[in-house]
Amino acid sequence: MEKVPLSDAQIEIIQLQEYYENTSINNIAGIVNIKNKVTISEIEKALNNLIKNHDSYRIKIKKENSEYEQYISEHKDKNFNVVDFTNDQEEYRHWIDEQVSKNIFSINSDLFEFTIIKLPEGKTGILLLQHHVISDGWSMTIAVNTICNYLIDGTKTETLEPSYFDHVREELKYKNSERFEKDKQFWIEKLENFEDNELFKKTQQTVLKEIGKVLT
What we know:
Radius of gyration: 21 Å
Number of domains: 2
Strand order of the largest sheet: 2-7-6-5
Helix content: 40-55%
Largest sheet: 4 strands, mixed
CATH topology of the largest domain: Chloramphenicol Acetyltransferase
CATH superfamily of the largest domain: Chloramphenicol acetyltransferase-like domain
């Protein structure tokens, strides 16, 4: 099992999670509406296809000696909860509020929750609930497109996507390169006269950290 450090962006997300402990501050949520003719079994296959081919959904966070690391677990098909809110708009709204407000961050566990829903008007939907440490707004769009394409084309869309760990490795490679040192020195010199400026009340270390993230 390969373990890699968190990216700078992931570290900031985890720090925010620790500060606002047991909150939903890092949740990203969306609902996909599905046509009635699609079966629950087909939806489950589409969700498992997403998890199998996008390894960010198989990222788990572990903590050893106060340091966070991440690894990718092997894919195993999952069963997903089905919740029926047919003709029950009030309970549906209450349930949605409850789901998006809960903390889904956990060590050595999934950082997402997918739930199949029978919507009040009778249609079927999927609640996609994802933690920001593995997801952002764009990846939510990719998830929705992947699910819809699978339901339309079936197994023809089963292709492995680039690994998120490739991005992490590139970031680590850059931070250990001569280019990073040159870029760091450049921005130290650029910002040396901003120390007393009210807009720049950050330590040099924090500024450099943010610059390094932008440059990667």
